[in-house]
Automatic annotation (TrEMBL):
Species of origin: Acaromyces ingoldii
One Pfam family of this chain: Cu-oxidase
Protein name: Cupredoxin
Domain of life: Eukaryota
GO MF: copper ion binding; oxidoreductase activity
Family annotation (Gene3D superfamilies): Cupredoxins - blue copper proteins
Assigned protein family: Belongs to the multicopper oxidase family.
Amino acid sequence: MRLPSPSFFLCTLGLLSATAWCKTVKHQWALTPQYNAPDGHYRMTFVVDGQSPGPTLAGDEGDNFEVEIMNELPVEMTIHWHGIFQRGSPEMDGVPGVNQWANPPNGNFTYKFSAPGQYGLHWYHAHVRGYLDDGVKGLIYIYPHANRTRPFSLISSDEGDIAAMMEAEKNPRSMALYDWRHVQEDEAIAMFDSSGRPTTCVDSVLINGKGRSFCPTADYLEEEAARRYDALPYFASHVDSRGCLIIPGSGSYNAEAISSPMGCTNSTADVDIVPTQGKWTMLNVANVGGEWTWTLSIDEHDLWVVAADGDYITPKKVQALPVSIGQRYTVVVPTDKAQGGDYFIRANSQGFAQVLAGVGVLRYDDDENAMVRRQDPVMAPPDGDALGDPWSDLSKASVRYNSSLINGAYQFDAQQDAPAFPAQSPPSKADMTFVFHANQTNTTVFQIGSQPLADVQELNLPVLFSQPGRGLEQDPSWLYRIPYGAVVDVIMQNAPNALFPAPAEPPHPIHLHGHKYWVLGSKEYETWQYANVQDALQSGNVNLNLNDPPSRDTFLLPTAGWLVLRFIADNPGAWLMHCHRMGVVFLEAPDRLDNIPDSYKTPPTTTPYAPRALIRGATLMGTSL
């Protein structure tokens, strides 16, 4: 029987010398197939408790969580709780073949975890293949403890402003951004695999599960592409009707294999309308998609970025905020326009291979004369209608359709603009260094290091369960052992490959499960030439930040460039570090993994464990983070 609402059970939590009350937040969610048309075009989707995005998992700092997942889908399923460290519960991380058996069709699995010391915005999603792109996803919000120091006084010293921001934090507005295709994930992978073309094109962008298909004219798209790709003339003159760059394929390139079955058709589906909260409005922004970085902006409004990946940062005022896959930001917006009304929320693709944008609306909720209504058509540029075309008059906007900045807008720099609040510094040196090269070997196979994670690994005994202090018969090339307490540096290079002509190697959002890391540095269009961080610092030629670097769990490996991360191995478990269909596993403190309950080590028996045949190249990575 499904629970109609969360059930709360009081518990006590020892907190230093004090006793604090906490509760257990319980949910029971069914995953089911459902026909939906979030952008006006119907297709089969996968939903969580009848909706996509699914319900927000909300609780207070210090709470425990229990979520029973009833898998009524025709495919295997696990749920990853992105950003939750799973300290003491690595078997709840939700990666098949790494720390969980996949939950088969008609199977149930209950996730039980806590998040001590964590707060803020996170998210959950499917972690089998790329089924998050079919709709299995939702937000997590942990309300920070009242005693936790906020950075709001760095935005304004006015007590009224600070009080308004504190009030807005009690009921933040959610903003889940993601790309959307008109075909299911399995079909998309099959098309990409047979076409010889990389997996780059989507049909629309959704905000909180709503959006519209926009089909600009060919002339408009080529003009916008030319503005973005002035250094890459081939790309600037080769865009299709959806704004996708026609990238040279590998082997026999078959463009027809990936053409949209309906072509590009304008739609008039609902757009998301976000009501203001008074003088200040708080937005919880997450990219829960599988393909592109989205640049968020709101016409005529500044964005104060106050948190990144769930933790407070020193506030930064911007007009444009790039949000890569898996990343989360909390922003406060001064919503003090005397005239009220509606203002376009813009989400523009920063993906190097597609020019695409979508809109929502920020509405001053006490204004009865607001012009935008849910069923009003928003026509594609440059053809306006009575509503007004979002891209025909950009005098009040911060970004063009192609995501380039206009009107003096400042764009958030994730490397420079996100020092932690309160300030923190990483350890001064590392005990271990791993150097990886991210590469793409064909249209659907990516890898880090010498080999990709095997397609069949999601069918195998999870690494976590084979490691109660014992060794595997032979460690696979993608598994790396780390002793407890080690300070670890990871250096990643975005390697050239045959599918993307240099210097167009796509960026990759790198997510580390079970941890946050310090981002010591990154740079696009440059090759890392050193054995480790110390060598780089001694050379004097590399700019690395060991004083106040950003602390993240997801960060972008830049185009044709490098990324340097540092973390402390203080969380025993088997943890994935990965991006699109490529990854490695860190087996951390295996000598401390003897307390995994035996009940989790046994394959599920509700139905025979026989995952359907995998399409070549569709590994357990999927597009999941």
